[in-house]
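Intended use. Records like the one below are meant for learning the mapping from a protein sequence to its folded structure. Do not use them to infer anything beyond what is encoded.
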Amino acid sequence: MSNASGHSPAGALLFLHAQTSLHPGSGTALGVVDLPVQRERHTQWPVIPGSTLKGILRDACREQAKMQFEDDGDDVPERQRRTRRQKANEEDPMLVAVFGPGKITGEGSSHAGALSVTDARILAFPVRSLRGVFAWVTCPAVLERLHRDLKLAGHDEIEALSDLKALGRSDAACSEDSPMVLADGQAKKLVLEEFEFTRVADANHVAEWIAAHSVSDEFTKERLKSHLVVLEDDYFTHFVRHATEVVARIGLDYEKKTVKEGALFYQEFLPAETLFYALVFASDSRAEKRPVKAAEVLKYVRSGLGEVKVLQIGGDETTGKGLCAVRLVNGKEGG
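Structure written out for the chain above:
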C-alpha cells in the first residue's frame, strides 16, 4: 500500500475499550427504539464512523496544542476574537499538517491531512454468563476480518485462526479452565444469556493476542484470556443486535413531576466492556510549511492521547456515557 508520492504509509491499530455505556449513532429508527446505535448495513454489527474518530483524535491533540496560544482580549473586536482552541485549530503547524486545515477558505483548502482513520469495527462484545459474570464473545467472521486488517496495518497476524472456522451451531471455543464452563458429565457447557453452548475447542491464541494488544490494564488482560469465547457467526450477530441496552429517556415537568408531552424516547447503548478496533494510516505530510514523515505523524497522535488515554466517544457526554480507554498499536511494534 502506497500513497501518491510513492512513500509507504505507516499503519497502526487503534483499540477502543468502552468503560461506560456507549452510543455511537444514531442509526435509522425502524422499531420502538428512537435512537439506535449505528450499524453496518450488511452485517448489522455496531460500528463507529471513522469521521467521528478522526474528529476526536484531532480534539485530543488540539487540547495540548492550545497551551501555546492565548485567548484574544478586549483589544480585539468582538466579532474577530478567537479562543486559543480556535487559534490552535487553525494555526498550529503540526496539528494542521496531521489533520488538515482548520478552516476552508483561502489557504485553508490547499492540502489534506496526513492521517487516515477507518470506521471502528466490533472486536468483542460482552454477554451475560451463568457463571463467571460475563463473557466477551466474538466469531470467526470478525476474526477473519481482523486477520485481513492486520495485513493492511503491517502488523503480525494471529495464529491458529483456521482451527475456529468449523464451529457448529451451538459450539464454543474458550479456555479449558475458564470459570464460565459448567461440568455436565463429560461435556463442558456454557450458558450465555438464554442459550447453552458446548465447549469444543480452545481459543487461547486468539484470547492472548486480543488481551496483549487491545487493553493496557493488567486486570482486564488476564480476564480476557479466560473470558473470551468464540461463537458461530449467527449467534454472535444475534447478541450484538439483541443484547444491547435500551434505556427510556424522559423530560419531567418540574412542577407536576410528570413526563412532559413528547419528551419520552428510547435510546440504545452498547454495554460497557465492548471492544472495537480501527485502522490508522499516516502518510508524509502534504503541508509545504511543515514537512513531517509518516512515523512522526503517528508519534504526534500518540502524544496527543496523553498519559490517561481515555476519550469520550458518541453522545450523552454529560451523563458519563461513551468513556473509552484507547490504545494505539503500531505495525510490527506491538506497543
